[in-house]
Write a structure and sequence with these properties.
Blueprint lengths: L1 E5 L6 H12 L2 E3 L1 H11 L2 H10 L7 H12 L2 H4 L2 E4 L5 H10 L4 E6 L2 H10 E4 L7 E3 L3 E5 L2 E5 L17 E2 L6 H22 L5 E5 L4 H14 L4
Parallel strand pairs: 1-3, 1-4, 2-3, 4-10
Antiparallel strand pairs: 5-6, 5-9, 7-8
Helix pairs in contact: 1-9, 2-3, 4-6, 7-8
Length: 229
């Protein structure tokens, strides 16, 4: 089973793909994670990627495509994968098509208002050695006929991490202005890619209107209906 997953920043795409991979017994492959690993190990690819990352610009399509397609040739990926964060452009999509046949696209749908609410409520532990993660947003509203019920994930003591007792903080990336800018970039980059795949590959359109566990369950149900092997 070979899947792609698309979703705006803050849509929970990473959380869904991380949960789906073990359920489907396939590997999750994310370019961002791979680049960070290559940079950390100081590989030739890592050194090349670092020259772009340090300038705050995207790694060129050919470099990213080469890395991902190389990963897809490995034994575990040949058994099945879910690609999270690739392709991000038409050239990348075309290179991917040359290498493998994609079975389906999981498309996470979430209105801007919901994403801003969710990201604005995220709080992380200020202790860099702790992975405490919370969300103070309590969302219950209906938009375009779709009901969104996203309860908060609160610490036992307000503003304090349950795990280590450190203060909770908000990431700069979760500030409204930054989120809105990221959403604009995502829309500009992703829409052409989704349009490219429309009619070529089955789409599984899923609303981000419930907690991750329930959304993942619905995705699995839709995958089952496609009878993918």
């Amino acid at each position: 089973m070979k899947l792609l997953i698309f979703g705006a920043p803050g849509s929970g795409k990473g959380s869904y793909s991380s949960r789906l991979a073990p359920e489907l017994k396939i590997v999750r492959i994310a370019p961002g994670d791979m680049f960070r690993e290559h940079i950390k190990k100081g590989t030739e690819l890592g050194k090349l990627a670092a020259t772009y990352v340090s300038k705050g610009v995207n790694v060129p399509d050919d470099v990213t495509s080469k890395m991902i397609i190389g990963r897809l040739s490995e034994a575990d990926a040949k058994k099945g994968f879910i690609l999270d964060g690739f392709p991000r452009s038409i050239p990348q999509a075309k290179e991917l098509n040359k290498a493998v046949k994609i079975d389906a696209i999981i498309n996470i749908i979430a209105p801007k208002e919901i994403i801003i609410g969710v990201t604005g409520g995220r709080r992380i532990c200020s202790n860099s050695k702790c992975d405490g993660n919370y969300n103070i947003a309590d969302i219950h509203k209906t938009i375009d006929g779709v009901e969104y019920v996203l309860p908060p994930l609160l610490p036992k003591k307000e503003g304090i991490c349950d795990k280590c007792g450190s203060a909770l903080t908000q990431r700069k990336d979760d500030m409204r202005e930054v989120v809105e800018q990221r959403l604009e970039v995502h829309e500009r980059q992703t829409k052409p890619v989704l349009d490219y795949y429309e009619g070529r590959i089955p789409f599984i359109n899923i609303y981000m209107n419930r907690p991750p566990k329930e959304v993942v369950k619905r995705i699995l149900e839709q995958i089952k209906k496609l009878n993918l092997s």
